[in-house]
Amino acid sequence: MKKSSAIVIILALSVLFAGLVYYGFTHSRGVPVKIEKQKTPVVEVPFIDKVIDLKDGISPDTWSQLKPQEIKLMYQVTVLPWPKVKGGLPFVAVKAFHNKEDIYFYLCWPDDTEDRVHEESKFSDACAIMFPKKENAQPNTIMMGFLGRVNIWQWKANQDREYWKNESVEPKAYVDFYYPFEDKELFPVSKRITKSPVNDLVAIRVGTITPKEIQEVMGRGMWENGVWAVVFKRSLTAKETEDGANFKQGKMISALAIWDGSKGDRGGRKSISDWIELDIK
Predict the structure, then answer these.
(1) Which of 213, 203, 205 has the alpha carbon at shortest distance from 240?
(2) 58, 52 in Cβ contact below 8 A?
(3) Which one of 6, 54, 76, 166 is separated from 218 by 20 to 30 angstroms, measured CA to CA?
(4) Which of 49-58, 113-122, 266-275 has the lowest mean pLDDT?
(5) Long-range contacts made by residues 214-220, C-beta under 8 angstroms, separation at least 24?
């Protein structure tokens, strides 16, 4: 073999060896994977010169003017009670608008059964919206209150039935009318008066859920052909400014939750969204 050929081979092997050493060093902790940042869904909240009187229903004609934003859901499995069924609700459709005085939210999702009774071994359908109280709150986690004080609006189908239809299951009443992370279920207590289908709540961390002193949020739900449609209504500015969410032009984050009573959902057993962004026009 000629001397020049041997030198070329040696150089080639040296370069190959150096390349292998470099690759091994840079990938010693595994091959890097490029993770695309997930986009936060945006729900537009435009101005519409319209007032919805929930005594007359949820005004489907008004909502038909707005395009829904479909929000993906996942099943909450990080807290007790653990789910008895696999899966959960795949999505909820959301719409919203304001009329410069009140703000309205519309949540719509499929549900084969209309669960409006809350008693032993029976659980009510429900939905909720959570708003951080801190301005420019960072969406670090969807666990309630981990990012500071939050205002939660929770509509419950059994309370809707009691409030709008003046119907209730007698003589039973139960302690988890709000939605604590209960250890045990449904102990009979004295009956409370239902002042709204929506519980206006505040929390600062898991297990601190508390009803606000002033219940400001109204709502109504309609179930038809296997679909729930629920409307929340409240003034743009809260009467309880310390604990209630306030809405002004700009962007803010929020999160959603849905309970399917026929599947045993209650308390921490529910379907939840990741953070969404409200764009208030």
Answers:
(1) 213
(2) yes
(3) 76
(4) 113-122
(5) 214/239, 214/240, 214/244, 216/240, 216/244, 217/153, 218/54, 219/54, 219/153, 219/155, 219/160, 220/54, 220/57, 220/58, 220/160, 220/164
Q: Distance between CA 157 and CA 230 in Å, rounded?
A: 9
Count the neighbouring beta carbons within 10 Å of the beta carbon of residue 134. 10
As a whole number of angstroms, the distance between CA 123 and CA 18 comes to 66
d(CA 70, CA 121): 31
Beta strand pairing call for 276-280 and 42-45: parallel
Greater confidence, 37 or 229?
229
Phi-psi category of residue 200: left, alpha or beta, with phi > 0 → left and psi -120 to 50 → alpha: beta
Question: What are 5-38's pLDDT values in tens digits?
Answer: 666 666 676 767 677 667 666 666 655 555 556 7
**Nearest partner of 272 among 111, 148, 98, 88, judged by Cα:** 88
Reduced to 3 states, what is the DSSP secondary structure of residue 94? strand
> DSSP 3-state assignment of 17?
helix
Burial of 49 (C-beta count, 10 Å sphere; 0-12/13-18/19+):
exposed
- Label the pairing between strands 198-203 and 210-211: antiparallel
Q: For a pLDDT cut of 70, what percent of the chain falls above it?
A: 70
Picking from 228, 216, 280, the residue whose alpha carbon sits closest to that of residue 254 is 280
CB 237 within 8 Å of CB 266? no
> How far apart (Å, rounded) are the C-alpha atoms in residues 128 and 266?
12
Q: Give the tokens for residue 209.
A: 């859920």
Which of 194, 156, 190 minimizes the C-alpha distance to 174?
Answer: 190
Q: Which strand (E) or helix (H) includes residue 75?
A: strand 69-75
The one-letter code for the residue type at 127 is: C
124 has a pLDDT exceeding 90 = yes
